[in-house]
From TrEMBL:
Pfam families according to UniProt: Rce1-like (PF02517)
Keyword line: Membrane, Transmembrane, Transmembrane helix
Protein's recorded name: CAAX prenyl protease 2/Lysostaphin resistance protein A-like domain-containing protein
Biased composition (Pro residues): 338-353
GO biological process: CAAX-box protein maturation
Species assigned in the record: Granulicella rosea
InterPro entries documented for this protein: Rce1/LyrA-like_dom
Length: 353
Protein backbone atom coordinates (compact mmCIF):
# COMPACT_ATOMS: atom_id res chain seq x y z
CA UNK A 1 0.00 0.00 0.00
CA UNK A 2 1.23 3.55 -0.64
CA UNK A 3 2.77 5.36 2.26
CA UNK A 4 0.64 7.85 4.12
CA UNK A 5 3.25 10.61 3.83
CA UNK A 6 3.37 10.52 0.02
CA UNK A 7 2.73 13.83 -1.69
CA UNK A 8 -0.89 14.18 -2.64
CA UNK A 9 -1.81 15.74 -6.00
CA UNK A 10 -3.15 19.29 -5.86
CA UNK A 11 -6.85 19.48 -6.81
CA UNK A 12 -7.70 21.13 -10.11
CA UNK A 13 -9.74 23.88 -8.50
CA UNK A 14 -6.84 24.71 -6.18
CA UNK A 15 -4.46 24.79 -9.15
CA UNK A 16 -6.73 27.30 -10.89
CA UNK A 17 -6.86 29.49 -7.78
CA UNK A 18 -3.05 29.50 -7.63
CA UNK A 19 -2.97 30.46 -11.32
CA UNK A 20 -5.30 33.42 -10.73
CA UNK A 21 -3.40 34.60 -7.65
CA UNK A 22 -0.09 34.28 -9.50
CA UNK A 23 -1.41 36.33 -12.42
CA UNK A 24 -2.71 39.01 -10.07
CA UNK A 25 0.66 39.13 -8.33
CA UNK A 26 2.42 39.67 -11.67
CA UNK A 27 0.17 42.65 -12.46
CA UNK A 28 0.79 44.06 -8.99
CA UNK A 29 4.56 43.51 -9.31
CA UNK A 30 4.63 45.26 -12.67
CA UNK A 31 2.73 48.25 -11.27
CA UNK A 32 4.87 48.53 -8.13
CA UNK A 33 8.11 48.13 -10.09
CA UNK A 34 7.08 50.78 -12.62
CA UNK A 35 6.35 53.32 -9.91
CA UNK A 36 9.57 52.53 -8.07
CA UNK A 37 11.66 52.84 -11.24
CA UNK A 38 9.97 56.12 -12.14
CA UNK A 39 10.66 57.56 -8.69
CA UNK A 40 14.31 56.43 -8.61
CA UNK A 41 15.05 57.62 -12.14
CA UNK A 42 13.49 61.01 -11.40
CA UNK A 43 15.27 61.35 -8.06
CA UNK A 44 18.75 60.41 -9.25
CA UNK A 45 18.53 61.39 -12.90
CA UNK A 46 18.56 57.85 -14.33
CA UNK A 47 16.04 58.53 -17.06
CA UNK A 48 17.81 56.33 -19.59
CA UNK A 49 17.81 53.40 -17.15
CA UNK A 50 14.16 53.61 -16.22
CA UNK A 51 13.08 50.67 -18.39
CA UNK A 52 15.93 48.47 -17.16
CA UNK A 53 15.21 49.33 -13.52
CA UNK A 54 11.52 48.59 -13.95
CA UNK A 55 12.31 45.24 -15.56
CA UNK A 56 14.73 44.22 -12.80
CA UNK A 57 12.30 45.25 -10.06
CA UNK A 58 9.46 43.36 -11.74
CA UNK A 59 11.56 40.22 -12.10
CA UNK A 60 12.67 40.35 -8.46
CA UNK A 61 9.19 40.93 -7.05
CA UNK A 62 7.71 38.29 -9.35
CA UNK A 63 10.12 35.52 -8.36
CA UNK A 64 9.98 36.28 -4.63
CA UNK A 65 6.19 36.53 -4.61
CA UNK A 66 5.61 33.36 -6.62
CA UNK A 67 8.02 31.37 -4.48
CA UNK A 68 6.23 32.56 -1.36
CA UNK A 69 2.86 31.71 -2.89
CA UNK A 70 4.02 28.23 -3.85
CA UNK A 71 5.50 27.65 -0.39
CA UNK A 72 2.22 28.63 1.27
CA UNK A 73 0.26 26.32 -1.05
CA UNK A 74 2.55 23.29 -1.31
CA UNK A 75 5.32 23.85 1.27
CA UNK A 76 7.78 23.63 -1.62
CA UNK A 77 8.50 27.07 -3.05
CA UNK A 78 11.52 25.91 -5.04
CA UNK A 79 13.01 28.13 -7.70
CA UNK A 80 12.73 25.30 -10.23
CA UNK A 81 8.93 25.39 -9.90
CA UNK A 82 8.67 29.15 -10.40
CA UNK A 83 11.40 29.53 -13.03
CA UNK A 84 12.35 26.19 -14.65
CA UNK A 85 15.91 27.07 -15.62
CA UNK A 86 17.79 23.88 -14.65
CA UNK A 87 21.57 24.08 -14.83
CA UNK A 88 21.74 20.73 -16.56
CA UNK A 89 24.28 19.53 -19.06
CA UNK A 90 24.11 21.60 -22.25
CA UNK A 91 21.82 24.33 -20.95
CA UNK A 92 24.08 26.95 -22.57
CA UNK A 93 23.73 25.14 -25.88
CA UNK A 94 19.94 25.25 -25.51
CA UNK A 95 20.03 29.01 -24.98
CA UNK A 96 22.41 29.41 -27.89
CA UNK A 97 20.16 27.35 -30.16
CA UNK A 98 17.20 29.52 -29.18
CA UNK A 99 19.22 32.66 -29.84
CA UNK A 100 20.28 31.43 -33.28
CA UNK A 101 16.71 30.42 -34.13
CA UNK A 102 15.34 33.79 -33.01
CA UNK A 103 18.01 35.58 -35.03
CA UNK A 104 17.12 33.61 -38.15
CA UNK A 105 13.40 34.14 -37.58
CA UNK A 106 13.90 37.91 -37.33
CA UNK A 107 15.91 37.91 -40.57
CA UNK A 108 13.16 35.92 -42.30
CA UNK A 109 10.51 38.38 -41.11
CA UNK A 110 12.41 41.49 -42.20
CA UNK A 111 13.74 40.00 -45.45
CA UNK A 112 10.53 40.56 -47.52
CA UNK A 113 10.58 44.25 -46.60
CA UNK A 114 14.23 44.51 -47.64
CA UNK A 115 13.80 42.62 -50.92
CA UNK A 116 10.83 44.76 -51.99
CA UNK A 117 12.76 47.97 -51.31
CA UNK A 118 10.39 49.22 -48.60
CA UNK A 119 13.05 49.52 -45.88
CA UNK A 120 14.67 52.94 -45.46
CA UNK A 121 17.80 52.80 -43.29
CA UNK A 122 19.67 55.65 -41.59
CA UNK A 123 22.77 55.06 -39.46
CA UNK A 124 23.23 57.01 -36.24
CA UNK A 125 26.35 56.18 -34.24
CA UNK A 126 27.92 58.05 -31.33
CA UNK A 127 28.79 57.37 -27.71
CA UNK A 128 25.30 58.14 -26.46
CA UNK A 129 23.65 55.77 -28.92
CA UNK A 130 26.19 53.05 -28.05
CA UNK A 131 25.31 53.35 -24.36
CA UNK A 132 21.59 53.32 -25.16
CA UNK A 133 22.21 50.25 -27.33
CA UNK A 134 23.72 48.30 -24.43
CA UNK A 135 20.94 49.45 -22.13
CA UNK A 136 18.33 48.31 -24.65
CA UNK A 137 19.93 44.87 -24.94
CA UNK A 138 19.97 44.44 -21.15
CA UNK A 139 16.37 45.67 -20.89
CA UNK A 140 15.20 43.18 -23.51
CA UNK A 141 17.08 40.33 -21.82
CA UNK A 142 15.35 41.03 -18.49
CA UNK A 143 11.95 41.68 -20.07
CA UNK A 144 11.95 38.48 -22.13
CA UNK A 145 13.07 36.42 -19.12
CA UNK A 146 10.17 37.87 -17.14
CA UNK A 147 7.77 36.97 -19.95
CA UNK A 148 9.02 33.40 -20.01
CA UNK A 149 8.67 33.00 -16.24
CA UNK A 150 5.16 34.47 -16.30
CA UNK A 151 3.69 32.66 -19.30
CA UNK A 152 5.80 29.48 -19.53
CA UNK A 153 6.80 29.09 -15.88
CA UNK A 154 4.67 29.01 -12.76
CA UNK A 155 1.39 30.17 -14.31
CA UNK A 156 1.60 27.58 -17.09
CA UNK A 157 2.37 24.86 -14.55
CA UNK A 158 -0.69 25.70 -12.46
CA UNK A 159 -3.04 26.19 -15.40
CA UNK A 160 -1.86 22.90 -16.92
CA UNK A 161 -2.72 21.16 -13.68
CA UNK A 162 -6.18 22.72 -13.78
CA UNK A 163 -7.27 22.30 -17.42
CA UNK A 164 -4.51 20.25 -19.07
CA UNK A 165 -1.38 21.31 -20.99
CA UNK A 166 -3.05 21.57 -24.42
CA UNK A 167 -5.81 23.92 -23.29
CA UNK A 168 -3.35 25.83 -21.12
CA UNK A 169 -1.09 26.36 -24.13
CA UNK A 170 -3.95 27.65 -26.27
CA UNK A 171 -5.39 29.93 -23.60
CA UNK A 172 -2.08 31.43 -22.52
CA UNK A 173 -1.04 31.91 -26.16
CA UNK A 174 -4.15 34.04 -26.67
CA UNK A 175 -3.45 35.97 -23.47
CA UNK A 176 0.17 36.39 -24.60
CA UNK A 177 -1.07 37.79 -27.91
CA UNK A 178 -3.13 40.44 -26.12
CA UNK A 179 -0.17 41.15 -23.84
CA UNK A 180 2.17 41.80 -26.77
CA UNK A 181 -0.27 44.11 -28.51
CA UNK A 182 -1.45 46.32 -25.62
CA UNK A 183 -2.35 48.99 -28.21
CA UNK A 184 -5.22 49.55 -30.64
CA UNK A 185 -3.66 48.42 -33.90
CA UNK A 186 -6.47 49.86 -36.07
CA UNK A 187 -6.33 48.17 -39.49
CA UNK A 188 -3.40 45.92 -38.57
CA UNK A 189 -5.18 44.34 -35.60
CA UNK A 190 -5.89 40.98 -37.28
CA UNK A 191 -2.37 40.19 -38.60
CA UNK A 192 -0.70 41.57 -35.47
CA UNK A 193 -2.92 39.51 -33.18
CA UNK A 194 -2.45 36.36 -35.29
CA UNK A 195 1.34 36.77 -35.36
CA UNK A 196 1.42 37.40 -31.61
CA UNK A 197 -0.56 34.21 -30.93
CA UNK A 198 1.63 32.15 -33.27
CA UNK A 199 4.75 33.55 -31.64
CA UNK A 200 3.32 32.55 -28.26
CA UNK A 201 2.64 29.02 -29.52
CA UNK A 202 6.23 28.90 -30.79
CA UNK A 203 7.56 29.79 -27.34
CA UNK A 204 5.26 27.28 -25.66
CA UNK A 205 6.53 24.59 -28.02
CA UNK A 206 10.09 25.48 -27.06
CA UNK A 207 9.23 24.95 -23.40
CA UNK A 208 7.17 21.79 -23.79
CA UNK A 209 9.82 20.13 -25.98
CA UNK A 210 12.62 20.83 -23.49
CA UNK A 211 10.86 21.28 -20.12
CA UNK A 212 13.05 24.34 -19.52
CA UNK A 213 13.00 28.04 -20.38
CA UNK A 214 16.48 28.26 -21.89
CA UNK A 215 15.47 27.67 -25.50
CA UNK A 216 12.39 29.90 -25.37
CA UNK A 217 14.19 32.69 -23.56
CA UNK A 218 16.99 32.75 -26.13
CA UNK A 219 14.47 32.69 -28.99
CA UNK A 220 12.32 35.48 -27.53
CA UNK A 221 15.30 37.67 -26.69
CA UNK A 222 17.11 37.27 -30.01
CA UNK A 223 14.00 37.85 -32.12
CA UNK A 224 13.14 41.10 -30.36
CA UNK A 225 16.73 42.31 -30.13
CA UNK A 226 17.37 41.82 -33.84
CA UNK A 227 14.11 43.45 -34.96
CA UNK A 228 14.20 46.36 -32.50
CA UNK A 229 17.91 47.04 -32.02
CA UNK A 230 19.67 45.70 -35.10
CA UNK A 231 17.08 46.84 -37.66
CA UNK A 232 15.53 49.64 -35.60
CA UNK A 233 11.95 48.55 -36.34
CA UNK A 234 8.95 48.63 -33.99
CA UNK A 235 7.93 45.52 -32.06
CA UNK A 236 4.14 45.18 -32.07
CA UNK A 237 3.89 48.95 -32.44
CA UNK A 238 6.57 49.80 -29.87
CA UNK A 239 9.58 51.81 -30.93
CA UNK A 240 11.08 52.55 -27.53
CA UNK A 241 14.49 50.91 -27.97
CA UNK A 242 17.47 52.85 -29.26
CA UNK A 243 19.55 51.50 -32.10
CA UNK A 244 22.45 52.54 -34.27
CA UNK A 245 20.06 52.01 -37.21
CA UNK A 246 17.01 54.24 -37.56
CA UNK A 247 14.78 52.38 -40.01
CA UNK A 248 11.47 53.25 -41.56
CA UNK A 249 9.16 51.28 -43.83
CA UNK A 250 7.19 52.36 -46.85
CA UNK A 251 4.79 50.72 -49.26
CA UNK A 252 2.07 48.20 -48.53
CA UNK A 253 1.22 47.53 -44.90
CA UNK A 254 0.65 43.87 -45.80
CA UNK A 255 4.35 43.51 -46.55
CA UNK A 256 5.98 45.92 -44.10
CA UNK A 257 3.47 46.14 -41.25
CA UNK A 258 3.61 49.92 -41.35
CA UNK A 259 4.12 51.75 -38.08
CA UNK A 260 3.53 48.56 -36.10
CA UNK A 261 6.56 46.74 -37.48
CA UNK A 262 6.90 43.38 -39.25
CA UNK A 263 4.73 41.68 -36.62
CA UNK A 264 1.71 43.36 -38.26
CA UNK A 265 2.54 42.18 -41.80
CA UNK A 266 0.47 39.46 -43.46
CA UNK A 267 3.60 37.76 -44.78
CA UNK A 268 4.76 37.16 -41.21
CA UNK A 269 1.90 34.70 -40.59
CA UNK A 270 3.15 31.95 -42.97
CA UNK A 271 6.70 32.59 -41.77
CA UNK A 272 5.61 31.84 -38.21
CA UNK A 273 3.83 28.68 -39.35
CA UNK A 274 7.00 27.45 -41.05
CA UNK A 275 8.97 28.34 -37.91
CA UNK A 276 6.72 26.03 -35.87
CA UNK A 277 7.57 23.10 -38.15
CA UNK A 278 11.29 23.87 -38.15
CA UNK A 279 11.45 24.23 -34.36
CA UNK A 280 9.59 20.96 -33.91
CA UNK A 281 12.20 19.20 -36.03
CA UNK A 282 15.12 20.87 -34.30
CA UNK A 283 13.98 19.82 -30.84
CA UNK A 284 13.51 16.11 -31.50
CA UNK A 285 16.52 15.09 -29.42
CA UNK A 286 15.53 17.38 -26.56
CA UNK A 287 12.01 15.97 -26.58
CA UNK A 288 13.37 12.42 -26.52
CA UNK A 289 15.73 13.25 -23.67
CA UNK A 290 13.58 15.43 -21.42
CA UNK A 291 9.88 14.86 -22.10
CA UNK A 292 9.46 11.08 -22.16
CA UNK A 293 8.16 9.80 -18.80
CA UNK A 294 10.52 7.78 -16.64
CA UNK A 295 9.36 4.20 -16.06
CA UNK A 296 9.14 3.64 -12.32
CA UNK A 297 8.52 0.20 -10.89
CA UNK A 298 5.50 -0.02 -8.62
CA UNK A 299 2.73 -2.27 -7.35
CA UNK A 300 3.07 -5.84 -6.08
CA UNK A 301 5.24 -8.66 -7.31
CA UNK A 302 3.27 -11.05 -9.50
CA UNK A 303 4.51 -14.59 -10.22
CA UNK A 304 2.81 -16.26 -13.18
CA UNK A 305 2.74 -20.06 -13.18
CA UNK A 306 4.22 -21.71 -16.28
CA UNK A 307 1.93 -23.67 -18.64
CA UNK A 308 1.11 -27.27 -17.70
CA UNK A 309 2.78 -28.69 -20.82
CA UNK A 310 5.98 -26.85 -19.98
CA UNK A 311 5.92 -28.19 -16.41
CA UNK A 312 5.36 -31.78 -17.65
CA UNK A 313 8.32 -31.52 -20.02
CA UNK A 314 10.55 -30.28 -17.19
CA UNK A 315 9.49 -33.19 -14.95
CA UNK A 316 10.06 -35.74 -17.73
CA UNK A 317 13.52 -34.35 -18.40
CA UNK A 318 14.38 -34.47 -14.69
CA UNK A 319 13.18 -38.11 -14.28
CA UNK A 320 15.07 -39.51 -17.31
CA UNK A 321 18.38 -41.29 -16.47
CA UNK A 322 21.48 -39.52 -17.58
CA UNK A 323 22.89 -40.88 -20.87
CA UNK A 324 26.09 -42.95 -20.91
CA UNK A 325 29.19 -41.11 -21.86
CA UNK A 326 32.00 -42.99 -23.68
CA UNK A 327 35.44 -41.80 -22.70
CA UNK A 328 37.96 -42.23 -25.50
CA UNK A 329 41.67 -42.66 -25.01
CA UNK A 330 43.65 -39.50 -25.12
CA UNK A 331 46.95 -41.18 -26.16
CA UNK A 332 47.53 -42.13 -29.81
CA UNK A 333 47.28 -45.86 -30.65
CA UNK A 334 49.70 -45.77 -33.57
CA UNK A 335 53.43 -45.17 -33.70
CA UNK A 336 54.40 -41.62 -34.14
CA UNK A 337 58.00 -42.48 -35.15
CA UNK A 338 59.14 -45.60 -37.04
CA UNK A 339 62.00 -47.57 -35.43
CA UNK A 340 65.41 -47.28 -37.11
CA UNK A 341 66.36 -50.03 -39.57
CA UNK A 342 68.41 -52.99 -38.32
CA UNK A 343 72.16 -52.84 -39.14
CA UNK A 344 73.40 -55.08 -42.06
CA UNK A 345 74.81 -58.44 -40.99
CA UNK A 346 76.70 -60.90 -43.30
CA UNK A 347 75.01 -64.14 -44.22
CA UNK A 348 75.85 -67.12 -41.98
CA UNK A 349 78.69 -69.46 -43.21
CA UNK A 350 77.69 -72.62 -45.03
CA UNK A 351 77.35 -75.81 -43.06
CA UNK A 352 79.95 -78.58 -43.66
CA UNK A 353 78.85 -81.56 -45.71
Amino acid sequence: MPSSDAAQPIPRSYQFVLFCVGGAWYLASDTIAGRAARGISSRFGFGSLRGLLAGCFTLFLLVVGLRLLDWIATRDGSLATVAPLPRREGYGTEWGLGTAFGWGLAIAVVLPVMLTGHLVVNYVFNLSTFGALLTGIATLAVATLTQEIVFRGYLFLRLSGAIGPAWATLLLSIVFGFYLMQIPAIGSATPLFAVSILFGVLLFMAYRRTHALWLGWGLNFAYRAVVAILFGLPIAGRAEFSSIIDSDTTGSVRVSGGEFGPDAALLTIPIMLVALIVLYRLTREYAWKYTLPVIVAGGYEVTVAPPAAHTAMERQAAAAPPPLVQILATTPQTRSVEPPPMPFSPPPPPKPE
